[in-house]
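ok so i was messing around last nite and threw this chain in just to see what happens. nothing serious, just curious
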Amino acid sequence: MTPSKATARPELVELPRSRFADRVVPAAPPSRGLTPWEAAWAAFLDHKRTEVSEGSIRGVFLWAAVRIDQYRQAVTPTIQTPADFTDEHMYHFEEALAKTGLTAASRVKIVRGVLGPFLRWCQKGRHGVQEWKRDVPELPRIKLEKWQPPRLTDDEIARVLVHCGNERDDFLIRFGLMTGLRVGEIGAARGPDEQNHHRDSFLKVSSVSRDYTSMYVYAPKTKTHRTVPIPRELSPVLRDYVDRVRPKGTRWEGLFLTLRRNGSEPVPLTTDGIKVLCTRLRHQSGVERFHYHNLRHTYARVMAAAGMSPWDLQQVMGHASITTTMRYVDLEHPAVVRNARAIVWDVPWVHTQRRLRARE
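result:
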């Protein structure tokens, strides 16, 4: 469906280019004094809270609501109710988002992930205002640009390691870089499992094997378990960290511990603690794109460039879809071409032509 030519095209709207300093917007409860648009949004958010977590509400829906409301106010009084959002507004809104510098993925999240469900929800009249029922405008087709996860350079990694204040922080960065674990999986990691608890799939923990060659990982994101190999170069470093650096005589089994401010017994290093550490290292080292998750991206890019099969990499990374894994694979990389040419085609039909020539 293309925009109707009979409908007047809205005037060009300039949206602010900020990265949403006010992205967390308090949800206004349905009450008197709200405009029809505000009442519909409040009812929609109350409905979504029964389906998704509060983190998704604040991180996605309220974040998108800021941009949608900025556009609606820019074209006021054209848009007063959800029924006023026409096909032309839909296309024009996407163009206005593109001019702010948002990536295609962010525009898809706002237009197709939030605005579309909101208009469909209003169309069904679930908020009790039947006169807002109408045909939902067709969403514009947004083409995602080809995106490859970032990879930290050797110089950037060295700059980050230089500013690690102690051996635990240094090993934490190296461990994430050479295993590709998510930050939540690092926080749930335990030391060497002497009782083979890592074989119990019902335990929501991650533990190192007794021989320091692999790690049984529980992924809170997908609620699944997988085995991650520990590189030969990392195994002795991990053993030395457990024997010499990690605090002894504590009731906590976490692999990474930290001292409380009052100097009492060590406690597990939480996910938030790891993020605070990475923020400090990012500012001190000057590597602006350093985040702990970028260590995972770097690990996957290095393994893919070294020739690891995408299906093996999918299992190690814990991706639910091979499509996610293929973002790390550069099919034009020399290592991929070299490994493809190194395959030995030891099958009968390869030599058929040579045998026919021999008979002649």
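not much to say yet. Residues 1-10, 17-31, 128-134, 196-202 have pLDDT under 50 and may be disordered.
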